[in-house]
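Query structure, 608 tokens:
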């Protein structure tokens, strides 16, 4: 039984990702790592020089001969060596601590940066997958400290090993039998610690989905996004109970293992005292036989707690390496995830066409969400020419927003093609293509930054905030007037998350999001219910501005409002993922089809 467990844990060691972790850390801070190792070795060396000088000092004192000048000289020498080495040890130790902290901070910041960079590069399909969120959570938790903890664990284990070798040499000179006694009593403690550390880690990993659930409920209680609903429906206690229900279960499981571990440690701890007295027995016998000097006894009494401490240091470091390795796996698992949207090896430039001839085109598109079982889009084809406003209408769930995600290349279709100016968009670099399309999403994001920056985010490649363009975009989107009314105008912080911020209405947020899209250099605008929160006058002005400033750009608008879509140049009607009708608005209004069915009531009201 014990052998099977041992084989299991040793097997887990062979699974360590030292190579990859070392490479990762080395690529980030090579010089600093060398420096930390050198300082640690120097500090250990100095400690033992000081200890050895002390032992010699005790031996010299115990072989005391009154009035001997040589004797006096030797005492002074040993005191100077021991004192000097001890002072230097303290200084080197302080620098070693500082450089270790510097190294670990640099490494965790850089790994955190890599995790964020990698995550941003992953495509939307991962956001459909709870497994991905588990990996991301564990990787983010691990990223800050664990790779460095492995390296520090390895360095500490080496350093502790050095100290043990040095201390063993001293102990062996007293009586060689002391060493196997000490080791035999301490190794079981090491194995027990690894065993419980493994148990705690396995529990953490098993409970990650539950932890995510608990933190989701925690967020519902504390986040500003849910604050209104939680209060108006009195959901605070309801979610709090769910949150604490899960937390209670998680804490109870963790504490149960901690208690088992405490019992085992208490039992094994008494073995340590036993080992001390067995050693004392051998030393006392040695003293009677004249093999052990007073210096030996003094140094053993000094050495025993130190030796025990070093062994613990090594055991602790190996446990640290072992534990952290389990979590580091998730960083590498995350780094190994690749975007499933292929980028061409040599991307084509976006083709320029004559004014007014550019076109964004969808051909026979079929699409099913990953993990879903039915097609959301079926054989969809449509054309958005430059200089025109095209509308896409349909009932809730008919597939309009999904089509936009494909136009933004957040997903690739299962079948069919999206073309820009005649070229399949998979031939362009993803970033370059996405620059051609600016979208106001139905669930656009409210950035708590200044009004100016909210718009600037539409084209961050312009290195400096081009204020006149920002104002122009705000005017087109109808945002200029309300921004100008703030004391700090465009420098006013939006939202209430940060000091001095101003909350604005949902319609005003929507105008800022639309200004962001207008600020971008895109050739096509896509507005997914971008006017849903606008009052009738603002909506009318927005479309006037859109048409007036469209120039050679094309626009696709999605709306459930007749007042919006009736001004489009061309309309597509989507029903259950299929285009069921298309044509000019006035034409469709006359035909008794899906379009007329959608806007029957609006049309009637208008004709009254
Ligand atoms: N991430 C997803 N994974 C699986 N199915 C999805 C996902 N997002 C949307 N769907 C499904 O795809 C279908 C189309 O959704 P979509 O959001 O495109 O509709 P829509 O026409 O934009 O609706 P609305 O007018 O309500 O905005 C719906 O049946 C929806 O349940």
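Result returned for the query:
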């Amino acid at each position: 039984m014990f052998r099977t467990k041992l084989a299991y844990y040793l097997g887990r060691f062979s699974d360590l990702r030292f190579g990859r972790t070392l490479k990762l850390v080395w690529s980030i801070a090579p010089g600093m790592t060398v420096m930390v190792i050198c300082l640690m070795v120097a500090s250990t060396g100095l400690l033992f020089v000081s200890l050895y000088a002390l032992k010699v000092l005790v031996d010299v004192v115990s072989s005391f001969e009154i009035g001997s000048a040589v004797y006096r000289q030797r005492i002074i020498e040993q005191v100077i060596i021991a004192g000097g080495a001890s002072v230097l040890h303290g200084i080197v130790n302080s620098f070693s601590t500082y450089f270790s902290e510097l190294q670990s901070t640099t490494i965790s910041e850089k790994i955190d940066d890599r995790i964020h960079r990698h995550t941003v590069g992953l495509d939307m399909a991962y956001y459909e997958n709870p497994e991905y969120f588990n990996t991301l959570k564990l990787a983010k938790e691990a990223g800050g400290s664990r790779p460095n903890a492995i390296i520090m664990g390895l360095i500490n284990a080496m350093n502790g090993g050095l100290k043990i070798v040095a201390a063993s040499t001293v102990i062996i000179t007293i009586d060689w039998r002391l060493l196997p006694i000490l080791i035999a009593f301490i190794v079981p403690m090491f194995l027990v610690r690894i065993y419980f550390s493994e148990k705690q880690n396995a529990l953490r990993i098993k409970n990650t989905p539950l932890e995510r659930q608990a933190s989701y409920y925690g967020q519902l209680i504390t986040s500003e996004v849910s604050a209104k609903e939680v209060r108006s429906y009195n959901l605070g206690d309801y979610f709090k109970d769910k949150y604490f229900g899960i937390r209670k279960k998680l804490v109870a499981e963790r504490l149960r293992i901690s208690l088992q571990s405490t019992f085992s440690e208490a039992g094994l701890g008494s073995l340590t005292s036993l080992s001390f007295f067995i050693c004392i027995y051998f030393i006392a016998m040695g003293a009677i036989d004249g093999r052990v000097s007073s210096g030996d006894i003094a140094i053993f009494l000094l050495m025993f707690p130190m030796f025990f401490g070093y062994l613990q240091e090594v055991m602790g470091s190996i446990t640290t390496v072992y534990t952290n390795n389990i979590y580091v796996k998730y960083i590498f698992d995350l780094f190994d995830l690749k975007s499933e949207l292929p980028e061409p090896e040599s991307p084509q430039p976006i083709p320029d066409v004559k004014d007014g001839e550019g076109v964004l085109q969808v051909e026979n598109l079929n699409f099913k969400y990953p993990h879903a079982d039915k097609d959301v889009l079926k054989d969809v084809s449509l054309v958005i020419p430059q200089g025109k406003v095209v509308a896409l209408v349909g009932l809730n769930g008919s597939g309009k927003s999904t089509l936009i995600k494909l136009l933004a290349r957040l997903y690739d279709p299962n079948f069919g093609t999206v073309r820009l100016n005649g070229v399949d968009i998979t031939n362009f670099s993803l970033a370059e293509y996405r620059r051609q399309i600016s979208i106001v999403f139905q669930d656009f994001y409210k950035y708590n930054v200044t009004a100016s920056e909210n718009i600037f985010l539409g084209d961050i490649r312009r290195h400096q905030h081009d204020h006149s363009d920002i104002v122009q975009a705000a005017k087109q989107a109808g945002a200029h007037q309300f921004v100008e009314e703030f004391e700090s105008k465009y420098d006013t912080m939006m939202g209430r998350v940060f000091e001095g911020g101003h909350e604005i209405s949902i319609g005003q947020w929507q105008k800022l999001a639309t200004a962001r899209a207008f600020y971008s250099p895109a050739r096509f605008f896509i507005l997914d219910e971008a006017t849903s929160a606008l009052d009738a006058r603002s909506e009318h002005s927005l479309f006037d501005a859109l048409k007036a400033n469209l120039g050679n750009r094309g626009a696709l608008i999605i709306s459930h409002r007749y007042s919006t879509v009736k001004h489009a140049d061309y309309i597509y009607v989507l029903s259950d993922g299929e285009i069921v009708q298309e044509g000019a608005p006035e034409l469709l209004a006359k035909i008794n089809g899906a379009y007329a069915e959608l806007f029957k009531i609006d049309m009637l009201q208008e004709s009254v």
